[in-house]
Design goal:
Elements lengths: L1 H129 L18 H11 L1
Helix pairs in contact: 1-2
Keywords: Coiled coil
Amino acid sequence: MKVKKMIKDLIIRLQEEANDEATHKGWCDTELSTNARTRKEKTEAVETLHAQADQLEASLAKLSQELVDLTKAVAELEVAISEATKLRSEEKAKNEKTIADAKEAQTAVAQALVVLREFYAKAGEATALLLQGDPQAPPIFDSPYQGMQAASGGVVGMLE
């Protein structure tokens, strides 16, 4: 009986071990499936992050090139602005000189008008005194010649 009892105990112990083993196997299967799912999720996350990193590197390269292009464009614009400023300064100086010349010319024209008016006023009187009517002059000349006073209005008129 002792042997029977030992065999029974052994059977009970083996059944308990089988139950423990089945429980442990169930736990292991659950853990393996959880680990497989987690590994798959992490692998997908890593692939997504690699794709994002590649995309960001491409964006960085593109933005770096744009920065180089824009820096070059800014430099070209600065040169163009400098040239335009220089040309504007030259034009301004030329315009100021032209304005000064025009003011001098205006003053000279005003002085010329004064001189011409005085000249024609004196010339009209002088010729009137010099050219007295000849008592034997033909009847065509009914008044003494005083120069071309009316024609002088053309020069004076033009200057005015």
